[in-house]
Design a protein that fits this description.
Elements (H helix, E strand, L loop, with lengths): L1 H29 L68 H4 L1 H7 L1 H11 L6 H13 L4 H18 L4 H16 L17 E7 L5 H14 L4 E6 L6 H12 L2 E3 L7 H15 L3 E6 L7 H14 L7 E7 L4 H13 L4 E5 L9 H9 L3 E5 L7 E3 L2 H9 L2
Parallel strand pairs: 1-4, 1-5, 2-3, 2-4, 5-6, 6-7
Antiparallel strand pairs: 7-8
Helix pairs in contact: 3-14, 4-5, 4-14, 5-6, 6-7, 7-14, 8-9, 10-11, 12-13
Catalytic activity: GTP + H2O = GDP + phosphate + H(+)
Enzyme class: hydrolase
Family: Belongs to the GTP-binding SRP family. FtsY subfamily.
Amino acid sequence: METVILAVVIAVVVLCALGGLIVGSRRRKSLPPPPPKTPDITAPPAEPHVGDEAETPRDEPRRTIEEVDLPGGPAPVVVEEPPVVEAPAIEIPEPTAGRLVRLRTRLSRSQNALGKGLLTLLSREHLDDDTWEEIEDTLLTADVGVQPTQELVERLRERVRVLGTRTPEELRGLLREELLELIGTDADRTVRTEPEDRKPGIVMVVGVNGTGKTTTTGKLARVLVADGRTVVLGAADTFRAAAADQLQTWGERVGAYTVRGPEAGDPASVAFDAVKEGKEMGVDVVLIDTAGRLHTKTGLMDELGKVKRVVEKHAPLDEVLLVLDATTGQNGLVQARVFAEVVDITGIVLTKLDGTAKGGIVVAVQRELGVPVKLVGLGEGADDLAPFEPEAFVDALIGD
């Protein structure tokens, strides 16, 4: 009996426990979620001052910009204005009339070996065959040339034989007459720059590198300006570095405008534009400086012929001046022959005639080309280019 009562009690306790669990589970499922807590609202932090920690602004004295020490930095950039390039002062060239006479002293100093040497030999009491051979050697050394030398010696021998006694004055007069005959006084040595039917006159300057061709072109511009002409320069030497700059400098000194093209450009195009510009500007003369071609380069010589043909699309050339170095002797004659085959040479310019005893090249080159020497260069000065005057040249050659 006790056992049954105990079992009943245990069953009741178990049932009660199970019921409590079920009720608690239902309550937990049916209860709504607890309401959210009200968030704590914090005011945004105040903006910090420069160099201060982030904190609430506080009243403090403020400094002006003048009181603040700025950190050192790079120096302010100073923009310099470009320098004002002043136009070169235009020079007034020396008049050309009688210029060779004024340079006679310089020429006579450099030619003593020829003129004074001949006078010394001719003044000997007895002129035997050995003396006449020395006279021939003197003339050949001065680059007079074989044929002109033989002609001169023959005439001198004949006149000395007829003359008999010979005073220094008679010998000087005799030699002067024969040298003038050899050089020629009847040739037209005027540089043709004034065609009758048009303007401008067109002059092309040709020659080998190193003869002073570009410098001669610039000096010729001075000669023309000194005679009252207006000039345009054509820098058709596009192959030599700084040739165009050199020519432009010469032009600026006398107020002549220079037409130039790109380096290594087409020389014929530059020459064509120079003549075109000269016609539009109404100038008197256009001077065209060509490249200093080696006379042994066939292609380059053909190009020189092209320049001539292109220029003549505007008008015929009035002058083609060949510049030769007076010190080159027979090599200069070889150059002259080749240039004459490509373009029609109308006149010769002899440079570096000072400082040399080779004045006989005047005779030889005229004989070779059949054209006269029209200008001679007697020094490095800007006005040392002079029109060739046979009388003044011979007087300087033999001295007073």
